[in-house]
Give the backbone structure.
Amino acid sequence: MTSKKAPTMRDVALKAGVALGTVSKVINNIPVSEKNRKKVEEAIAELNYEVNTYARGLKTQKSNLVALIIPNTLNPFFATFANYIESALYRNGMKMLLCCAGGIPEKEEEYLNLAMNNKVDGVIALTYSDIGKYISDGFPLVVFDRFFENRVIPRVASDNFAGACLAVEKLLEFGCKRPVYIRFHSIFPGESDKRLAGYLHACAAHGIEPDYLNMIECPENLALMEDFLRQHQRPDKELTFDGVFAHTDYHAFLFMEQLRQNGYRVPEDVQIIGFDGIRKFRYPAGDLFVSSICQPIEQLAEKCVEILMARCCGAQVPPLTLLPVQYRYGGSTREETGQGSVLPR
Amino acid sequence: MTSKKAPTMRDVALKAGVALGTVSKVINNIPVSEKNRKKVEEAIAELNYEVNTYARGLKTQKSNLVALIIPNTLNPFFATFANYIESALYRNGMKMLLCCAGGIPEKEEEYLNLAMNNKVDGVIALTYSDIGKYISDGFPLVVFDRFFENRVIPRVASDNFAGACLAVEKLLEFGCKRPVYIRFHSIFPGESDKRLAGYLHACAAHGIEPDYLNMIECPENLALMEDFLRQHQRPDKELTFDGVFAHTDYHAFLFMEQLRQNGYRVPEDVQIIGFDGIRKFRYPAGDLFVSSICQPIEQLAEKCVEILMARCCGAQVPPLTLLPVQYRYGGSTREETGQGSVLPR
DNA sequence: CTGTTAGCGCTTTCAC
DNA sequence: GTGAAAGCGCTAACAG
């Protein structure tokens, strides 16, 4: 089967006793007499014919391929995002080329080039590197979270500002008096930077003195958290804070472990809320690691695809689309109704 | 940039003042006079020329594309596998088309068809459905774990038999007297079925009466574990087992939680070893959920790609390749040297 | 509605 | 070495 040469449109035309163009029309759903359509369809079935994508692509300059650039799929957030991007693309008749660029700028550039040269119809990027310089306006690209100066690239993100406000408000609602923020941010500007603004805004709104760790994400995360902890211990070991909003679930989890190792109880002594909504073992059925402001990963992915499709059709698309986040209980807060892993819908 | 038509080989030839074929030769590294090569290379650089993959594919019937079929990337094992497949393919100059088939047999079939019709150069599949009937021998396919009757498809898997033996031996080494096995298997035959044989073998070798739960993976996992627990409680609530080898880390984790909810301590009262080596938040840096027999996911992925590449070159490849697994401490055993998340290398 | 035909951009003969 | 030319399989434009 593999060894034999695949049948071409010409073979189908011959077998059906019609012209090449007629076969093409049948395949592309262009009106053809019922009689001929039947004949062609039969011939196609008999020969097990399938269109050759190269020949078609050469002609149409369309591939029905979209490249997704993410750092990796080792991180469950990226992996989940990729999963839903693939689903959404598939529903749109597209296939996904996955690029795990993980810190290799040339690899990102290469995939961007694929789009430049019409090998893929578009690119969706969730990337932490300086992608901006490679692309021109009008390029079929949609980015998640990241902001590129002087570039008009449609962006999709969660409402990070509202999410941070929500985190603070939930902590207060559950009895915290002094919520702090532990931030480990990327060096690249993006929507997630607004978590800080949201935290500050919520503090101001509730008359709370803001207090936060503000560091660039680095391998010394743990040591920095340790320092932060020490600096907030009174001589009697009591902490000067009773609530933590962490930049991500990962940081929330690390800090929770650190607090527990130091003899503090979570959520009894300190309540913690993370950001992202990462699950144990499997999204979305698994339990959260910590109580969290959950990003609507599936909807974010769908929105990226929707916007890319619109863009490819030449439609006007909004420069920034923000999707709402949601608080969910995950064991690190004192909310007693807790239903950690209940599905979103 | 995107709006302008991409330069073709003809443009390069014109600019360089050579023939079309000469440009082609330069691009494909076929000997050409130094003078002409220079001219062509300059023209390419100036025009920012890139070969058109469709035209090339139409001619050569090669795409440098490989499809990876997995159920999804929501599960960290699959996601990690996909990540390393992508890396390995990239090192081989290939790009990865990702198909999350998740229970949609038609989707798998469709991607398999891509290979049938030379749209992709090969397929790697980690799938739990009846893929066997769609493929013929000689097809450029490599599968992970799964076994297809009457088909000669190269397979790659972990050494599940040895892994199960190792689990039992580790439990015994750490002081267990009665290790049981909790198995939730797929309905499709594969190498992971050999975990049962391994468990039985190890029991026999150490004069232990085997005792195991043997169920098909289903939504009632938890209830079945609950039943198992009840059936192994003496009237005084003491358990008739003191060690558990679980089919996967996920099942190990669920059972550990259930034991704890029932007042048993892990690892003090019961020690548990899972299978897979799933990490919290991120492979391989994150902590294990439980002590585990870890599959060498990266090496497995690399081996799949290596075999596929060999296969594509028409080389003879082994029908089954088994890679060694490794025990790692993850908190659910009484090994005291415990260094849970130390990297494999 | 149907059949014919001209390329899409490339690789690969084949003479030179 | 090099250049000319024949397609790869398809779509789309055109004449019938």
Observations:
- Confidence is low (pLDDT under 50) at residues 338-345 of chain A.
- The longest strand of chain A covers residues 179-185.
- Residues 18-22, 25, 31-33, 36, 55, 57-61 of chain A lie near DNA strand C (CB under 10 Å from a C1').
